[in-house]
């Protein structure tokens, strides 16, 4: 019998069709997007990435050259280019640290980083200051094709409202719930996360719009379980 996680993802896939995330031209661009997307809308990230590309990122450089190029911009120029992504000073520092780390530890090559197990890639990324679990998982999954799940706020909210996990659960519990329930497959984790984000953005917002949502038949008796407020 299929798991609840599998049924939820299959239901969303039937309703929305394949999402084919992440929208980027190179794995390095995925890393940049994953670092810039923290606490901002994706449209703002797109503007920042477009600025970086206009300045020369990508531009036939591929992996080794891309990290060197961004690191070589210097913090001030980087701040200017990524300004549309919001909290640009903090994000410029994070991006710079990531690039320098990639150059120092892996010769600037993502191949060097990704040539190991998913857990090992994740642990390595978590050592970089400013990279938390969600960003590490996004980079490992979407840039590296590693078998790990991005347990962001959307995926947590859906679980909690359906009563499949508590609102108080932490990042690792949410990630573990999805990974335990889905077949171990990076392409499936990739598609599942993208579908859950779409459901979250369109229906499972701060105020749930369950009547129009494809996951409505999977709700517990009595409707969605909202977070208790004191
Ligand atoms: S909007 Fe309602 S039915 Fe849809 S995922 Fe959220 S809680 Fe479930």
Helix/strand/pairing category: mainly alpha
Alpha-carbon distance between the termini?
39 Å
Helix share of residues? 55-70%
Radius of gyration: 18 Å
Going by CATH, the homologous superfamily of the largest domain would be Hypothetical protein, domain 2
CATH fold name of the largest domain? Endonuclease III, domain 1
Bound molecules: iron/sulfur cluster
CATH architecture of the largest domain: Orthogonal Bundle
- By DSSP, the count of extended strands is 0
Give the total of domains: 2
Mean pLDDT: 94
- Number of discrete helical segments: 12
Strand content is under 5%
Order of helices and strands: HHHHHHHHHHHH
Unreliable stretches, pLDDT < 50, 5 or more residues?
A: none
- What can be said about the biggest beta sheet? none
**What is the level 1 CATH name of the largest domain?**
Mainly Alpha
Give the overall shape: globular
Task: Provide the descriptors you would attach to this structure in a database record.
Endonuclease Iii, domain 2; binds iron/sulfur cluster; 60% helix; 12 helices; Endonuclease III, domain 1; globular; mainly alpha; 230 residues; 2 domains
What can you tell me about this protein's structure?
The protein is mostly helical and 230 residues long. It has two domains: 4-20 and 149-218, Endonuclease Iii, domain 2, CATH 1.10.1670.10; 27-143, Endonuclease III, domain 1, CATH 1.10.340.30. The protein has twelve helices and no strands. Helix 2 packs antiparallel against helix 9 (133-143) and helix 5 packs across helix 6 (88-106). The protein starts with a helix and ends in a 28-residue tail after the last helix. 37% of the residues are buried. Iron/sulfur cluster binds next to helix 10. Residues 158, 161-162, 199, 203-204, 208-210, 213, 215-216, 219, 224 line the site of iron/sulfur cluster.
């Amino acid at each position: 019998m299929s798991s609840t996680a599998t049924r939820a993802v299959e239901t969303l896939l039937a309703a929305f069709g394949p999402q084919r995330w992440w929208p980027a031209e190179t794995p390095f661009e995925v890393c940049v997007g994953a670092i810039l997307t923290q606490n901002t809308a994706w449209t703002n990230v797109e503007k920042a990435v477009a600025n970086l590309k206009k300045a020369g990122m990508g531009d036939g450089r591929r992996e080794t050259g891309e990290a060197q190029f961004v690191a070589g911009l210097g913090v001030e120029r980087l701040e200017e280019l990524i300004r549309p992504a919001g909290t640009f000073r903090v994000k410029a520092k994070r991006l710079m640290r990531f690039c320098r780390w990639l150059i120092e530890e892996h010769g600037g090559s993502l191949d060097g980083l990704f040539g190991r197990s998913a857990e090992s890639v994740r642990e390595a990324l978590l050592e970089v200051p400013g990279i938390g679990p969600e960003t590490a998982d996004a980079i490992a999954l979407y840039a590296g094709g590693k078998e790990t799940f991005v347990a962001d706020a959307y995926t947590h909210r859906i679980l909690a409202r359906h009563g499949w996990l508590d609102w108080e659960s932490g990042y690792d519990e949410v990630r573990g719930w999805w990974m335990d329930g889905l077949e171990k497959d990076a392409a499936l984790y990739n598609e599942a996360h993208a579908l859950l984000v779409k459901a979250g953005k369109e229906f499972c917002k701060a105020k749930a719009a369950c009547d129009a949502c494809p996951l409505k038949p999977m709700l517990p008796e009595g409707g969605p379980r909202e977070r208790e407020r004191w």
